[in-house]
Amino acid sequence: MNEIQDESAVDPVILINSLSIDDANNGGTGKRRKSKSKVWEDFIPVSSGGKIQSAICKHCGKRLSGRSSGGTSHLGRHLKICPGRPGKTMEGQKNSSSQTNPSVMENWEFDQEKSVEDLTSLIISNLCPFSIVKSTSFMQFVASINPTFNMVSQATIEEKFIAIFYKEKLKLKEKVTNASGGVFLSVGIWGLVFSPTVRCFTVHFIDENWKMNRRIISYRCAGTENDEDHYYISMFPDWQSFCNLGDSDKTKLQIVKDWGIQQNLLGVTSQVPVDNGFISGIEASLSGSKYLLSKFKLLTVPCFVDALDRLFGFETKKIIQETSRSYFCYMTGSSVRKQKYNQIISSMHLKHPSFGSKQWYLTFYLLEVILKFCKAFPDIDITDPLRYNKPTYDQLEAAEAFCKIGRPIYHAIKVICSHHNASNTYFDPLWRLRIVLQESSNKPNIKEVHDVKNMNRDFKKHWDKWYLWLSVAVVLDPRHKIRFVELRFLQAFGTSAKMYISEVRGKICELFTSYSCHTRQKSILARTNSELPREVSDSYSLRDTNQNYNELSGQGKFKELNDYLGGELHLQNHGECFGETFAPANDAAFHGEQVYRQNDDFDILKWWKDNESTYPTLAAIARDVLAIPGSAVPSEAAFDDADERARLFETELSLQTAEALICTQSWIS
């Protein structure tokens, strides 16, 4: 099974250190003879069975062999280059950052139970097989670190895992049930080797501390559409029953009820196609609720990432295929060129593709490598000539035209899929993509590279569904507010901008009125619409929006909203305005590495936390709107056809255990 790397995984260094032991700390009675060498003044001896097994440097915490058969000369050599001693080199400073603090080691006490917990957390965080504890090489590794560590059985690790699973599930369930604002649900869909579908249910909400939470609550198989696959699936004892269970509307509704999110549920983000029966079932279950949300339909949000992927279509143009093939041969036609090609690959800042990557992304990545290679080594034909000719200028132009559209799509997907980004960040990259698509329509020979006409048509169709809530999220960003939205719409739509601006103002007024009446009740964001439409409710029609807004403002009912919208913008650190973030930084956009300048230091959730008492109604709106998920696709698989975590269903683990392992990894990260 492939291991899944996760930034939040338990550090193996911590695990190794937790297995360390000193007889004195472990209650041992063995005595060691006094070491005569002065080198021991700089080391902490670690004994086992009355004999020194290793030595820990007091300066940098590095562990070295301390056995008498090996002498002490290697300890002296270490002291000469020790990064923790006075006069250490810059290289030593870099290496010392990963070493153990010697003060910690001096007070170290071995804890067998804690070590087992760390080992279990390591397995969960990296989705390792439980059978790793039976691996001979793993046991040898642990024994070399601490010969007296009592290696536990696989059954013990599984018991520990189950305990952690139920503990973390209870904690998350309580957190979701008691959420200060609303909760959104996303449903992702994946395929496996035998083509059964895997559905991933994730909850999204902003907690009482104004922290973004995106946690998987169910990850299960949902059947297969291919009749031939049933033959293979039947070989797995509980696969078919698990698939049938996971794909029924009744089971999906039960997941929602088991987690207690139906009371706070505001909307659902799903990949195409949307399960209308599932949505209707949830709405029906809300009909008897005591909360005001039960009177309205759920907000259903299409998966932005799914829509962006489909812009490229399913067929690559002939000139792009030829360019990819010819330039690959051109870059790898000799050992010198291949070395330079590998240098370019290692320096790319794009996500490295895999065999499971989407076709458009594999093509985009290779074309970006081609462009960067040509820019970095313009004279390579002179220094390392090939027998065959260099690819044509038209092919290079085609590569640039393809990447010009691929870059903003890549950037938009990265932003929208991020676990930490709130919905206020979605407008910027999508607007940039809109501009690039429109500009590309006028490029000569663009039809040979992209079907831009259809791309613009499809994007407009999605934009008409997206723009209203994207704009509301931007208005709730104190750096931009309504003025940014008005400016962009005026630039893009001219005389038609008034309609778009009125709709955004109408939605803000409507939300503010609703929330101001129910600030002490559960959030009711989903009251307004069921599909992200462009229509405004009857009480706030386009012709009445400005009139109602002015009347309510005059009556003081909108004082909080007026104070916020009329107040000063929150200035960014470098004095940039939001509109300028679209500009590419010099030629970096040539190879797609840093297409946009953004102020990553600004934390919008912290701003609303700090200003909640000043704008209580708007803060309640922000807590819900900023939690709207734009994607049902996890960031780890944003450019892939399948989620690697789904491979767990192809291992020896039971399907229920595989699901629990994936969920627990999401909870403890």
Provide a descriptive summary of the structure in words.
The protein has 669 residues and is an alpha/beta fold. It has a domain at 40-81. 47% of the residues lie in helices and 9% in strands. It is built from 26 helices and 8 strands. The strands form 2 sheets. It has a 5-stranded mixed sheet with strand order 6-5-4-7-8. It has a 3-stranded antiparallel sheet with strand order 1-2-3. A hairpin with a 4-residue loop joins β4 (183-191) and β5. α15 (359-376) packs across α17 (393-417). The longest helix is centred in the middle third of the chain and has 25 residues, at 393-417. This is BED-type domain-containing protein. It comes from Aegilops tauschii subsp. strangulata (Goatgrass). Residues 92-103 have a biased composition (Polar residues). Homodimer. InterPro entries: hAT-like_transposase_RNase-H, HATC_C_dom, RNaseH-like_sf, Znf_BED, ZnF_BED_domain_contain, Znf_C2H2_sf.
Topology readout:
Layout lengths: L11 H7 L24 E6 L2 E7 L5 E3 L7 H9 L8 H7 L5 H5 L5 H14 L10 H10 L8 H24 L5 E9 L4 E11 L5 E13 L4 H5 L5 H9 L1 H10 L6 E6 L5 H11 L12 E4 L1 H7 L7 H15 L2 H13 L11 H18 L3 H4 L9 H25 L9 H14 L11 H24 L5 H13 L3 H21 L24 H13 L4 H8 L37 H7 L5 H10 L29 H14 L1
Parallel strand pairs: 4-7, 7-8
Antiparallel strand pairs: 1-2, 2-3, 4-5, 5-6
Subcellular location: Nucleus
Subunit structure: Homodimer.
Protein name: BED-type domain-containing protein
